[in-house]
């Protein structure tokens, strides 16, 4: 019995030392999954680098068009800010995304408070926008036409000064352009009502009742209010006549200035936040439905000229929409390029596969062309703001803004989608922060006018100017192509762009009855031609590099569509066929 116990003890000791030996050998051999059970391979995330110094297109454009003394003064600030957006600004943005705004309608005692609870990151970003002079810098006028601001809603509000119709607004002007976070105000715009859409003139039901102190009381329901947590807003309403009648259509709509809270007690200005919208993207931005129940407001336009005042706003917000689209394209392209230098597949980094590089090259070409388009629009806007734009530039600005907004928004969706694919499965994971770029970008083809609305606005610009915008467009394109003749490598590209220009002019003159149904194709063709001319011009200056020439050549070869090749698509028969195609089976379901 004693011998049997000793044997068992020996057997257990032998088993223990055998297992221990195998474990030690496993550690020495670094066998995966031995301990942590997650393996030894980890993907390196893309690095977000300085967003100014790494953007060679932006830098060379500024070097080309800006006076050297202006650029030398602002470039250190651009470099600093380009680095900051990869640090605390980026982290605050992630915080906003992870902690979207919440609405608290009532306090613990049943009082209605309609408090919008935002994250610390959102509040910090508001402070940063003041400190960095995102709005203020454009009004300090230090650099004349070379600086414009990038906070659209606050900008359009402050842009009414000094030709402001409402003297009361001068009190808040200093707040809108302040660099002091304690004084700084942001502004919203509340135009959309339940009917929604771009038909604001017929969709506005809010009523403005005149008061004895020259103010108005607003009664209505705003279906979609941008920047709901802002300090002020512009909105639309109808003023009844003395007999109580309302003028229908655009002539009955006026614009009003509203402060969201009362000055005397800090409570809501008879505004109830009914709910916050549950949106696909831009979830970090509070967007709500508002009930105006006697909100105090002041007239901010001539009576009945509200729609005309909005037109001035759209000039700005559509450019800012395009800036957002281009920024997202540049961001995803930059990150996909960085990832391609570290991600290994089938034995080598994916940046060594020509097929993958071809995809990245097309993303770069689309984003590069879009960048030049929006920068040119901003340049001309700067001239217009400082009363330095000539008549041709004013016509170009009227035409370029809708095509810029339309083109960049649609391209942002395709470029970002392609960019997510470049990350494989990681591009689909929300915790990488990448899908947010696509979700946020989806608003850009919708906000401030859908693609169809922009295309029709292009036609409206042509009609209202009796074709003068097209004359200005042709002359501007030809001037840029003439500059391109400095570089013999661009000869074929110039011929191709000029041929496309002639084709679209011919289409315009010979197909007046088809313009509405062809509006999209027509507007996109204008965009492609203008970008082609911009790329050629950019590749012709003394500081141009080989890659500028490559971009101009590739655009003229790959991106110019001939609208005349689609002429049969716009016939009456085709329109009927398209309707039949869409509606087949629909009647049977009724």
TrEMBL record:
Positions of transmembrane segments: none
Keyword annotations from UniProtKB, A to Z: FAD, Flavoprotein, Oxidoreductase
Domain Acyl-CoA dehydrogenase/oxidase C-terminal: 304-462
Annotated Acyl-CoA oxidase/dehydrogenase middle domain residues: 189-293
A Pfam family of this chain: ACDH-11_C
Ranges for domain Adaptive response protein AidB N-terminal: 49-142
Annotated Acyl-CoA dehydrogenase 11-like C-terminal domain residues: 468-583
Swiss-Prot/TrEMBL cofactor(s): FAD
PROSITE patterns (UniProt xref): ACYL_COA_DH_2 (PS00073)
SUPFAM superfamilies in the cross-refs: Acyl-CoA dehydrogenase C-terminal domain-like, Acyl-CoA dehydrogenase NM domain-like
Record carries keyword Cytoplasm: no
GO MF terms, alphabetically ordered: acyl-CoA dehydrogenase activity
Stated family: Belongs to the acyl-CoA dehydrogenase family.
Protein name listed in UniProt: Acyl-CoA dehydrogenase/oxidase C-terminal domain-containing protein
Native source organism of the sequence: Strigamia maritima (European centipede)
UniProt lineage: Eukaryota, Metazoa, Ecdysozoa, Arthropoda, Myriapoda
